Each structure stands twice: as C-alpha cells, then as structure tokens.
Amino acid sequence: MASFDTASKKQIETNPQDFVHLCFGFETTDITVLEIITPEQPTVEMHQADSLIKAMYNGKEVLVHFEFQTTDSYDPEMPLRMAGYIIRAIEAYRLPVYSNVIYLRPDAGKNDPGRYAQNIEHHNISIEYQVFRLTDLDGQKVLDSRFVGLVPFTPLMGHKTDIDADQWLRRCVQVADSMEVPNKAAYLGSLAILGNIVYDSQTILDIISEETMQHPPIVEYVAPQAHEKGFKEGIEQGTRKHILEILTLQLGDDIAQNFKASIESIDDLQRLEVLFRAALQAKHEDQFRQAINETSE
Question: The pTM is what?
Fold first, then answer.
C-alpha cells in the first residue's frame, strides 16, 4: 500500500491546485495555493499519507487536508481518525480546515458517513469532512479538464458504460501521455501504480507501451539528454534515472538507493528497458532484485 500512498502524495505535492479545486468544486475560481505543509513538521502529528495545503479561499487563509485511503479503516474507524487529524491541525495552525478523504479502491468508503459524532447530553461533538470515492467521480470530466494532478487517478474513476475497462484505461493513458509534465516517465509510472489497484499490471504496461510511442517509450522521454550526451549514452542515462524514480515511488527511497550502484553500472539498453518494466511491477525489494539477477544471466 505504501506505493499507492507515495504515488498519490507525489501528485498532490506537484499539483496542489488541482486537489484544492477538487475540494471546493472544479468551477470555483477564487482560490490561490500558498504552500504545501509537510506532514513531517513536528508541530502536528499527521499520518504519512496526509497532505496539508495552505490556500487563500474567498480572501481568507485556510488549510485543505487530504487523506488517501486504499481500503476501509477499522482500527480506528475513519471518522475517528479524521476527527483527530482535523483537531490537531486546527490547534497547530489556528486556521479553518477543510478536510477530505479520497478512497482509491472501488469497494472502499461506501459506509463512511463523512462525520464524527459524539452524542452525549451537554457534550455533543460533531466534526464533518468530505468523502471522495474515485469510482463515483466523473473521470471523463477530469480528462476533458486536463487536471494534471488528477489524471493519474482517472483509471480508478467512473466512466460511461459504452466503453469497456480496457478502452477506458487506454483513453486515460492517451491523455496522460499528452500532458506537458517535467518527467513523463515518472508521471506515467504513477498512473501505472495507481491503476494497478483495479487493473492487471501487465495490461497497464502493454497499453502504455502501445499508446505512448511507436518505439521503446523511454527513448521519447530522454530525448533531450540523448542529444546532449550522444544518443545511446543519453538514453541509457535517462533510463537509469527513471528506473530509480519508479523504484522510489513503488518501494521507497531507501530501497531505491540500495539498487542505485547496480543500476548505474548497467550499460545494456535492452536490459535497462526490461528493468524499467520490472520496476513498475515491483511490489517488494526481493522481486526487483530477482529481476536484476535474471537479466544478468
């Protein structure tokens, strides 16, 4: 589940305005993002998957809080968790908090009331938050609006019944590939990681390969480096970089660094491309280590 958290948090860190618009409604215009407040700050205890965004809304400073949840939470239940986050954030920052939970899996969040309540005479407590189940969102609207931070989540969103699941995934990949982002490989990697919640990983990789290029996809992403350092060397250097980025998303930075020396020593482009695909599918460290060993034989 850590890879889903990391991929989700990466999008909110790089495109916070899209998530703020999700909170307040896509048509809202009087919003300005001021800063991302990192959850590691000691002023407030927040779960690693949480994201806090300071923004101007209708002329006032507010906090917009997001919690990404893959499955239902039972210990503690989500209303209690959210109430704790909200109160701690209010205490630490003394700002209005707009809190939201985003459920990634289609079967999650069905019973989340969006409210914590304590009903005791003279001691009533009621804390509300907004619940987003991605399967209930209009994925086509997100694609049409080209919200950069939300597009990687569209494979998990609702779509019209006149197209099947693979056709919808293909459409999501096409739009993601058309987005102007600094690192296309990592961006598509986030879509692949998140899409793996509902799609088979090989299906995702096949569609990405088919839709993003006529030749090995990585060549297109590292073309600027290829011109600077020589075509072959540039492609190899870019591929190594993207493998490490995808491993960081999938397994965390510490584990990715464990493989850095091995990856940087590889100068076989075909082997690097195999490892790029293996990184997208890796669920744990041993799985990717096995891929390195197999490609060396």
Answer: 0.76
Quickly tell me which residue has 């995934």 as its tokens: 169
Q: CB neighbours of 227 closer than 8 A, spacing ≥ 6?
A: 234
Give the pair of three-digit tokens for residue 263.
């990856």
Q: Say if residue 104's pLDDT is above 90.
A: yes
Integer CA distances (angstroms), 192 to 65, 93, 116, in order: 25, 36, 34
Number of other residues whose CB lies within 10 A of the CB of residue 256: 21
User: What SS3 class is residue 137?
Assistant: coil
Q: Give the model confidence (pLDDT) of 210-233 as tens digits.
A: 887 533 444 444 444 444 445 456
Q: Where are the alpha helices (DSSP H) in the chain?
A: 2-14, 16-24, 78-93, 139-145, 165-178, 184-195, 201-212, 217-221, 223-229, 231-251, 253-264, 269-281, 285-296
- From 7, 6, 64, select the one nearest 31 (Cα to Cα): 64
Count, residues in the chain? 297
290 contacts: CB under 8 Å, gap ≥ 6: none
